[in-house]
Amino acid sequence: MATQKPLNNESVVARTPTRQITVVAQDPSVRRDSKIVMARIDVPTEDLAAGPMGYRVQVVDFDATRRVFHGEHDLPTSVDHEPKTWHAGDPQKIETDFRFHAQNTYALVMKTLARFEFALGRRIPWSFRTHQLKVAPHGVADANAFYSPEAEGLVFGYFEGASGDRVFTCLSHDIVVHETTHALLDALRERYMDPSNPDQAAFHEGFSDVIALLSVFSQPEVVEHLLLGEHKRGATERFVTRAQVSVAALRKSALFGLADQMGGELEGVRGKPLRQSAELQADPKLKDTDEFLEPHRRGELFVAAVMLGFINAWSRRVLESGLENQKAFPVRRVAQDGADIADTLATMWIRAVDYMPPVHLRFGDALSAALTADWEVRPDDSRYELRKCMRNSFEAWGFPPSSKREDGSGRWEPPPDGLKYDRVRFESMKSDRDEVFRFIWDNRDKLQLRDGAYTEVLSVRPSTRIGIDGFVVRETVAQYYQVARLTPGEMKEAKVKAPAEYLRTIAQTVKSSAAAIEGAGDDDSHAQDLSDVEADTTPLYGGAVLIFNEYGIVKYWVPNDVFGKDQNERLKYLWEEGILQPGRGSTRLRATRLSTLHRLRAFHSRVAQKDRW
Ligand SMILES: [Zn+2]
């Protein structure tokens, strides 16, 4: 009889769900005693193949500009096997060691993915069919980094900085997290890359910046470093004064401090979102100015609203948890509080995505979604008052919650009464698109399914989350989408108002193609005819998200009516931006948008007024 072998240390380690790995805490310009500030983060444990290649990420160290393959990198299996120079933050070694670059990129992508999966309580497939996201740490010789759905991956550039040193975007914590967040948001809300309204265009950037910044702030190493300031970093006495934890002082030390440290060389790539949003003074009128209708600048308003809400919650927490007249606070505790709040806030905003409408997002919708998602799992907000801080901050920037719920909480309203459940099977509804479609179809009047619009259930996903107080919240999140192509007459009937000038353009297009048909021979008249059917129609998009509770009852319904008055605003915006053309859909525009945005960001970050995606 075989005896069972005792577990050796290695197999115990292999069984733990996460393991530690060394990364650059922010970017190589953030230094202490001339060493790069490093951090150890947790990533899911897995046996990596050379590349490194794991179950969700594949590092391909190919340089497309120079057409050089830097080889497959074999990563150390634990922090104990890492070269000592890595954790020590030796600048020379870190900047020239491509094996470390591969580890840094792999680890931050995996950490971000794990962060989203933890918050949402499920696996998140990428927006494309393959399981592994390709990541090129030295993909292009360019001051750029971008997510490309077509390439199914992330490309990080490198360039010669002003000082003559080579700058690697793959070594920047916030750039790697930012790009990964684009990929994850695209996986969760596939229509958010379409042009729709100023807020939606800004949201992809603003949200990716927020998750990236909160990820940086959730490392106590970084926060402590910022709080101590340049002059006190070597001191043994590590306290901050009461004045240093006021809102104004934390804003200066943490937000401006990080922005300053981030280093000028990368400003072009990152578009200075932190620096610029930290400098802005809250003003509800800013959002209506021409300057802040431009997507990058508008994204900064979102970043400012979240980050200043964060600072308020942090300052309050430190002061309230101390003694009444306490004069000094241990820096480690203040940093830990800041890191905890950043982490909780990141969870809140990631969970919010499940509660956002599938199309035409506005910042007020995002806020209502965040307030709802957070309340569901963390009903008691007294510890950090995060919901209150977020709400106050967004309102100060002119973005009140979209929900008009009577209790004033800003959470989404309950769904319409009288929904029918008797013909569907809830077990199937947890994963089956057809079953969910049947539910929607059975309730088509109440759920605003419009005649003449095509409806499709985009996704049905289970979600299991554990609140900080230990109870489990089980939900099913289903998204459906409606699209209609209407002629001017049909738009009028549906009470959708398109800009008058646009309607004149349609009339002219129809007239000139009618003339063309008349002039054409019999052979191609049929083909011409078919394209004309499209030419005088305008695509309209709508849909909703449905959140079912664990008993299969709808808790929330967040709709965007395909024929509703929101469409008027959207058509006006698209027309003014020059995107709306008769007969054209918007999927064509999706392909290049993000990489274009990032290029614009790099080269003309302040002048991209007429951004065409
Ligand atoms: Zn971006």
List keywords for this structure.
alpha+beta, 17 strands, binds zinc ion, 613 residues, globular, 5-stranded mixed β-sheet, single chain, 4-stranded antiparallel β-sheet
Explain this structure.
- It contains 22 helices and 17 strands.
- The strands form six sheets. Strands 5, 8, 9, 10 and 11 form a five-stranded mixed β-sheet that branches. Strands 14-15-16-17 form a four-stranded antiparallel β-sheet, sandwiched between helices.
- The chain has helices at residues 9-15, 84-88, 91-96, 98-120, 173-188, 198-217, 220-232, 247-261, 267-270, 273-279, 295-321, 331-354, 363-377, 386-396, 426-429, 433-442, 488-493, 500-519, 525-535, 566-576, 587-590, 593-604; strands spanning 18-24, 31-32, 35-36, 38-44, 57-59, 62-63, 68-69, 133-141, 145-148, 153-160, 166-168, 239-241, 328-330, 454-466, 472-486, 538-548, 554-560.
- It starts with 8 loop residues before the first helix and ends in a 9-residue tail after the last helix.
- Helix content is 44%, strand content 16%.
- The chain has 613 residues and is of the alpha+beta class.
- Helix 4 (98-120) crosses helix 5, helix 7 crosses helix 8 and helix 11 (295-321) packs across helix 12.
- Residues 524-533 and 585-613 have low confidence and may be disordered.
- The longest helix is centred in the middle third of the chain and has 27 residues, at 295-321.
- The chain binds zinc ion (ZN).
- Zinc ion (ZN) binds at residues 178, 182, 205, 208, 598.
- Zinc ion (ZN) is lined by residues 178, 182, 205, 208, 598.
